[in-house]
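User:
I would dearly like some help making sense of a protein record. Take your time, and here it is.
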Amino acid sequence: MDFPDLPFLRTFVTVYESRGVTEAAARLHRTQPTVSYQLRRLEETLGAPLFERRSARLVPTPLADRLFRFLGGFARDVQAVLQGDAEDRPLEIAAVSGFGRYVLFPLLRESESLHRALTLRYPSAEEVFRQVLEGQVDVGFSFRSTVHPRLTLTPVHEEQLVLVAGRTWARRLRVQEHFQDVPLVTYDEGDYVVGRWLGHHFGRRHPHWYSTAHFEELEEVLEWVARGRGVAVVPGFCIPKGRGLSVVSWGKPALTNTVHAVQRTQAPVRPAVAELLARLRDGRELPAEVRRGRSPRSPAP
């Protein structure tokens, strides 16, 4: 079998993501017959179909799924090299929600050079890794680490993980020993954060707690906590002022968690990505509450 022509691989990746020839042709700035022809030539080279047509959508075959995973951004990288910087296409970013909403978005919003063409998504940490591997985004950001031969993780931010409470619960938990049978407000991917916080303060013998409510995003979590319906472990930078929320601190050193930029190993780095990472590491353009790294103190009893 001959190696497929490189433009055919790029076409395949776009059709796979779009699940249709019409949308893929628009993204590639080509005619639909050209896209269909290139896809057919690739199938002839491979000796097997890549898609099945069901209603108005194309459904990938198992071979297409394997090929897409194998390419892992290769076709995108080759296209970027052939076309130069290709800075006219949007900068595509995948970031875990808390970091994306409270740190990354404000930075992008204030940057004239970075917000001109932008796509910012908030998937789970595992989905961040997958999207970077498959070349769906230019860079990802995750508060969790991973080891993969095709991924490079670079530390770009340190966040503090804190216990936040309303006035009543802050007074009840002035002493660490009082943390027993406490209602926690949890959120998606919060298990990792809660586990780290409990291990930091209590070691292996965790006190009993229970989930009193669960939400998808931190905004709802903080609203629930502000109403006195429980406490939560969150990144310190997301706590709003003037809501009666305080950090419960027992005099222990701050618990920090590293946020990593996730990129494909040895893939071309777009200038916009390099600029974004440099601004994150510099930190001077971050929101004041993030830059200071300080949290409100617990109220006096």
Notes: The longest helix spans residues 32-46.
